[in-house]
Amino acid sequence: MEVIENATRLKACLLECADDPTRPGWLRVSVEVRQVGPVADLPSLVDARAGETLAVLVGPADRDKVAALKPGSDIALQVRLRAPGVLTALPGTLAAD
Asked: What pTM value is reported for the model?
């Protein structure tokens, strides 16, 4: 399988987060999409629309940022499609919006 560098900017509402059972130190974050947009000149491989719910994996580098947020918080982040159905937040892009 060919790997394609990609990124998508999301504005979303944080619904919930929990430890990812298969990746120690990672969180599985559920968000309701508000807005989707491009990131620089990278292709967007995330097919999402406003109102859809997505599960995003957040790495250890941003774990404290997520822990400081409460469900219902508006957030902005950049995500990457890693494999079919697997989205990861790009480190350092998650912030309260």
From this structure: 0.92
Reduce the DSSP state of residue 62 to 3 states and report it.
helix
Tell me the per-residue pLDDT of 54-74, one tens digit each, with 9 for 90 and over.
999 999 999 999 989 999 999
Query: Which pairing describes strands 53-58 and 86-89: parallel, antiparallel, or unpaired?
Result: parallel
> What does the pLDDT look like over 11-57, one tens digit per residue?
999 999 999 999 999 999 999 999 999 998 899 999 889 999 999 99
Q: Which amino acid is at 69?
A: L
Output DSSP code: residue 85: T
Integer CA distances (angstroms), 2 to 5, 6, 13, 32, 83, in order = 10, 12, 32, 29, 11
- Measured in degrees and rounded to the nearest 5, phi and psi for residue 4 equal -115, 120
Which residue spans within 1-97 are E strands per DSSP?
8-19, 27-38, 53-58, 74-83, 86-89, 95-96
